[in-house]
Write a structure and sequence with these properties.
With 136 residues, this protein is α+β, with helices and mostly antiparallel strands. The chain contains 4 helices and 5 strands, in the order ββαββαααβ.
Length: 136
């Protein structure tokens, strides 16, 4: 069974409902095979810093079940930085992210993920919501 990874928009108060009622969240995109760990490596790249384990603490876990179903909130600062990236910065961040040990893939394989993160971050800022990662 592969890991489900879904980005969705919600208010922090409503986010935990995604685990039982995902159909109530129309702004959601599905990917697989990554967690807050992989997102934290992208966060380090965007910030221009080295990755440390402390970056994982910035992805607040709002929901955790014994079966490893989890919901993490993407840091608000990450959303703000994502929407300010110029196209060349997005390309560079994508290439660096693909080259990390955690991702280890071609930039083309993960570009849709980064594009969706940028889009959802923009929607979150416009709507006052947040971006969340659901894993199961």
């Amino acid at each position: 069974m592969s890991l489900i990874a879904t980005f969705f928009l919600a208010s922090p108060a409503d986010a935990v409902r995604y685990a039982t009622a995902p159909e109530d969240f129309p702004e959601a995109v599905d990917y697989g095979g990554f967690t807050a760990l992989e997102l934290s490596t992208l966060w380090a790249i965007i910030r221009g810093t080295d990755w440390t384990n402390d970056l994982l603490d910035e992805f607040d876990c709002l929901y955790h079940e014994a079966d490893m179903t989890m919901i993490h909130q993407i840091p608000s600062d990450m959303n703000r930085m994502l929407v300010t990236l110029a196209p060349d910065q997005i390309r560079e961040a994508n290439a660096l992210w693909a080259d990390t040990e955690e991702m280890d893939c071609s930039p083309d394989a993960i570009r849709p993920i980064l594009d969706d993160l940028v889009r959802l971050a923009g929607l979150a800022l416009e709507s006052g919501q947040q971006v969340f990662l659901f894993n199961a």
